[in-house]
Amino acid sequence: MILPPSETKRDGGDDTRVLTLDALSYTDLSLAREQVLSALVALSHDDATAAKALKIGPTLMFEVARNRVIHSSPVMPAMDRYTGVLYDGLAADTLDAGARAFLAQHVVVHSALFGLVGAGDPIPAYRMSHDTRLPELRLKHLWRAPVSAAIDAHDGLVLDLRSESYVELGPVPTGTERYYLRVLSRGADGTKRALNHFNKKGKGQFVRALAQSGIDHPTADSLLAWAAANNITLERGSDGELDLLV
Question: In Å, what is the CA distance from 227 to each residue of 46, 151, 153, 230?
Fold first, then answer.
């Protein structure tokens, strides 16, 4: 499963460890990670320029300072670092060891800074999003091909829960058992409608339920059968899509 990141990050972490790119999953992305990290740190040495690039106001200037020390900041697992509606629904810190191990093995987060990272990968707090403009770097050109290649190398079911903006930074190549998850509601007339706030919450709760089950589904048919048995309304939607009804 591929999750989007969040703008907000939890502070703190293991202050005996710092960012080590070799400790992250998908080591083929290390060169691109180094380029983005260097550009972000350089950008963050100028408060005014960084604030404009990161689209933040005076109350969030601490984020710029945080970027400047990203190489010496404490780290924590990505599943705990990210916050916001989706990650509140997931609530990884309240899961038992088995469910957290499932997330670490089967869930990745697509970060504009690091590319794909495993849910258990140790990362620092930072501020950067898909539309951040870094000097002399275009994120779409940098990430699109290597992220798509990393996804394509995965055997079995791939379930994409990202927003469209992050899909643009690395689309899932077409193929069998590749699906985009939509979170919808069904009106009284039977029509499916897209959700906004509850879209993210529904995704987080869905991933939590999967982690608690501990089942690595090899196909969409297996996932659909599990959902039906657990009172989760999951249906095939348009071509290459699965619809989660909440």
Answer: 50, 24, 26, 5
